[in-house]
Amino acid sequence: MRIAVLGGTFDPIHNGHIAAARSVSTTFKTDEVHFVPAYSAPHKQSQESVSAFHRFAMVALAVSNVEGFRVSSIEVDALEKRYTVETLTQMRSRMPDGDLLFILGTDMYLEFETWKDYRIVMSLAHLVVVHRPGFSFREDLAPYCVLKKGQDVTLPAKQATPSVFYLPFVEQPVSSTAIREACRRGEDASAAVPPAVWSYISKHKLYS
Predict the structure, then answer these.
(1) Is residue 96 within 8 Å of residue 58, measured between CB atoms?
(2) Per residue in 131-157, pLDDT tens?
(3) Distant-in-sequence contacts of 15-18, Cβ < 8 A, 24+ apart
(4) Does pTM surpass 0.85?
(5) 146 to each of 75, 162, 164, 208, how far by Cα in Å?
(6) Distances 56 to 41, 67, 180 between C-alpha atoms, Å
(7) Pair 131, 165: CB distance under 8 Å
């Protein structure tokens, strides 16, 4: 079993998240991609704009019709801040012999050593770093491999040393911050999110 994990606040989830997940799924031939909305992200100081309930619901809508995509309540159910190392430890206990791939953007990877027990995170899962506009890929943290689109990838049999894969070809021109700001200005941001998510945002008047 090979599972990719994409965590975040998803405030809201947008087409860039979906594009990144699709690229990782195709590149690594994953069995499933698990989207993990945070109850409250440890690395973000400000409170999220909307509740964990709304964010979870939007993710569920976004992935409901995509084969192999799942939404996980593992962090939302905790009803408190959860660190990535705790989530991956729990997921690893459920599939001790499987492959876990943890997806993050170049923005998050730039500050990765500030994460709780980041070295343990790297021992629990292969890191898959996807390009985010305006953030360069760092080369000083761990051995890495830069992948090309369509390249066949062989994962190490055992994670004796951290393995990092960089996907520079992933396009994520949109951000959750930009969507929230557009909504607050009363602008139409429907092109940036899945249709069902935009309907949910409009129905509940989120971010307005």
Answers:
(1) no
(2) 988 899 999 999 999 999 888 888 876
(3) 15/174, 15/192, 15/193, 15/194, 16/171, 16/172, 16/173, 16/174, 16/175, 16/192, 17/62, 17/172, 18/62, 18/63, 18/66, 18/194
(4) yes
(5) 30, 15, 9, 40
(6) 13, 18, 16
(7) no
Q: How far apart are CA 36 and CA 34, in angstroms?
A: 6
Average pLDDT, the chain: 91
Q: 54-83 pLDDT, tens per residue?
A: 999 999 999 999 999 999 999 999 988 899
Give φ, ψ of 158 to 5 degrees: -135, 145
96 vs 116, residue with greater confidence:
116
All domains of the chain, ordered by start, with CATH? 2-204 (3.40.50.620)
Distances (CA, A) of 32 to 44, 146, 157, 204: 27, 23, 19, 30
Strands lying side by side in the sheet with 69-71: 69-71, 32-37, 2-8, 99-105, 126-130, 164-167, 144-146
pLDDT at 162 over 90: no
Q: Which helix (H) or strand (E) holds 99?
A: strand 99-105
Q: In angstroms, rounded to a whole number, what is the distance separating the alpha carbons of residues 87 and 75?
A: 7
For 130, the token pair is 């996807």
Residue with tokens 């012999």: 97
Give the long-range contacts of residues 142-147, CB within 8 A, separation 24 or more. Answer: 147/27
Residue 159 has pLDDT above 80, yes or no: no
Which 3 state secondary structure label does DSSP give 36?
A: strand
